[in-house]
Design a protein that fits this description.
By secondary structure, the chain is α/β, with parallel strands linked by helices. The chain has a single domain, classed as Ribonuclease Z/Hydroxyacylglutathione hydrolase-like (Metallo-beta-lactamase, Chain A), CATH 3.60.15. Helix content is about 15%, strand content about 30%. The protein contains 5 helices and 14 strands. The strands form 2 sheets. It has a 7-stranded mixed sheet. A 7-stranded mixed sheet has the order 7-8-9-10-11-12-13. It is globular. About 45% of the residues are buried.
Length: about 290
């Protein structure tokens, strides 16, 4: 399984400037991809990082895409109107929309993507995408299993604390006789209680990717906004006994210097020292 970060920023894109450089960690909003099995692609979320990803995949001639969305907030879908393969009629796209607890009837992502590309917000409507697009739903407690030959990717989900709702996903790959696992938990504000569904979902995974948007100093004034801190993510990782922790969904106000300092601080706090902790970088690929 290969995991690639196309976007690591939260809330809104943060282009690099002289005052707030963001080259090292990236300025695009959340979009990641998972290559599993021989050459199967799963795209998780469609923030502004999806634009660059689509350009790469278009050059490669990739024609089949499976999308998995955590929720419908704008920083996780704003790249979809600029996804180049979506304008090709020889492309097939399967979109899995989260069925969030207490949500209104109807496919969440289908409604959100159509609304995003409707006037007065966008000039080119969603129906102008020429790809063959199908919408499906996924909900907590109902596993999704993707198969290609003898390879498989099992996807489990739990609801995590975030305004409007959000799903965290666990992915277990079985390919070529090898197994690997990761949990992607963006837009998650870990509760103080140890009774946490995410802890159970992430139990002993190879990699936990977690939302650490705020510093400890910022968090008290942002409590309830649905995001975590590196310290809360570390606590989550230790409770779940994961092998590796990566922080993502960086605040748009945080420069490279700020993020380097936050990364160094959380690394010094790691107990046990065997736990590998780092901040994600846009353009980074991890192989599990």
């Amino acid at each position: 399984m290969k995991f690639h970060f196309w976007g690591t920023r939260g809330s809104i894109p943060a282009p690099s400037t002289t005052e707030t450089p963001t080259h090292a960690f990236g300025g695009d909003t959340t979009c990641v991809s998972v290559l599993w099995g021989q050459n199967n692609l799963l795209v998780v979320d469609g923030g502004s990082g999806l634009r660059q990803a689509g350009m790469v995949w278009n050059r490669e001639g990739r024609k089949n895409f499976t999308f998995l969305f955590t929720h419908a907030h704008w920083d996780h879908i704003q790249g979809v109107p600029f996804f180049l393969p979506g304008f090709r009629d020889d492309v097939t796209i399967d979109i899995y929309s989260p069925r969030l607890p207490g949500a209104h009837a109807g496919n969440l992502m289908e409604r959100a993507l159509h609304a995003q590309q409707s006037e007065p917000f966008f000039p080119a409507g969603f129906p102008q995408l020429r790809a063959k697009i199908s919408f499906h739903e996924i909900q907590p407690g109902h596993d999704l299993i993707l198969r290609q030959g003898s390879d498989s990717l099992q996807i489990q989900s739990v609801a995590v604390p975030h305004p409007g709702g959000c799903l965290a996903y666990r992915m277990d790959e079985s390919a070529g006789g090898k197994k690997s696992s990761l949990v992607f938990a963006t837009d998650n504000e870990p509760p103080e209680s140890s009774d946490n569904p995410l802890t159970q979902l992430a139990h002993q995974v190879d990699l936990l990717i977690c939302d650490g948007q705020y510093s400890e100093e910022e968090y008290p004034s942002r409590r309830g906004w649905g995001h975590g801190t590196p310290e809360l993510c570390l606590k989550e990782a230790i409770s779940a006994k994961v092998r590796r922790l990566l922080l993502t969904h960086f605040d748009p106000t945080h420069s490279d210097t700020t993020l380097f300092q936050m990364e160094e601080k959380i690394r010094r706090a790691v107990r046990p020292p065997s736990l590998n902790v780092a901040f994600a970088r846009q353009g980074q690929t991890l192989e599990l």
